[in-house]
Amino acid sequence: MSTTAIDTSGAGRKKNIWSLIKGTDFLTMFTALAASIYGLTLVYSASYSSLSDGKVISSDVRSMLVSVIGGFIISVILSNIDYDVISKLWPIVAAGCVGLMIFTYFFGVAPPSRPDSKCWIDLKIFYFQPSELMKVGFIISFSYHLDLVRDKINKIKTIIPLVIHGAIPVGLVILTGDAGSALIFLIMFIGMLFFARVNIGYFIAGFCAIFVGFAVAWKTGIINGIQRQRIVALFYPEQYADAMYQQTNGKIAIGSGGLFGQGFLQGNMTQSGAVPVNESDMVLTVAGEEFGFVGAVGALLILFFLVLRVMKIGIKARDNVGYLMCCGIAVMLFAQILVNIGMELSLLPCIGITLPLFSAGGSSSLCIYLALGIEYSVYRFSKMPRETLFYTK
Questions:
Q1: 24 lies in a domain?
Q2: Host domain of residue 336
Q3: Following DSSP, what letter does each residue of 37-72 receive, concatenated?
Q4: How many structural domains does the chain have?
Q5: 105: pLDDT strictly greater than 60
Q6: pLDDT (tens digit, 9 = 90+) per residue, 71-90?
């Protein structure tokens, strides 16, 4: 690996600074920041009524704000590092992520409402969810793996290691009790295989295997407790009113907002706390109630534009690794949007998946910005690879 010499003259410095500015994917960056600002507004409203005397913002807002600022700074730094270098660090990234998940399994902490879900690490200053970081690590390592075998992608001896690669994060998050993240990893795995142009026959076989596996897990009681109850409640909501309480009230809140909403900090159900966890899993209900149909659709349009933008950058990438990385980021975002909306509209069971960049949760926002930093790098180095500070051969 070699780096270009940096001109220390004034002209050289100006050229480098201009190259950094010129090579920035401002459209994606501003879209992500717009989503975060809107999200902070919604989380502030969701937690406003619970503020104690003298407090200006809640811990959720503070954590999210710090994560957005920190994540943004890290994403800008990553944008100046050739993504090819990042992809070749996959063994370190993968080992670090797996190590964190194993540590979480033994020493993780769980919320009082879900003692079986040990998904967080208590860092004393804040709680960190390693599965969010593992999503980024999986995108990096799996993109490299897919590129490595692209000439023989449809051979069975290639597919088996790919399946094992995809099963590792799914298995690790299931061990910590995080079924929601396991579903996101599964969608990411399938989506990245699709964009890597794996033969459709493998997908049919895979979906059949998933169906059989789910049936066996259901029959043997592997899927039990609250998870089983929430699935059944989707089909018999009246018989499981308690299990559907959060989602039922969420839909009422969205519907009560009408076209333009009841106004910021004026939502009756939002401010009364009638929708549990509306600062996180159910944050779209806040947008729907206080900013109406226009506000809820506006939030989704921002996110879907972000997904399409990341995909567009991937299609224009200089090589297959850059393309696959962007595809992985886009699929990750889309999967979380799809599952979260499905939860809030009672189309899917409530499994604790946040709406990207909108929901409270420092780990989620921080790691999404890390992923976007890779996309910024793909944009920069695909467009002007020889005019940046960290160009590598």
A1: no
A2: 34-49+56-383
A3: HHHHHHHHHHHHTTPPTT-SS-HHHHHHHHHHHHHH
A4: 1
A5: yes
A6: 999 999 999 999 999 999 99
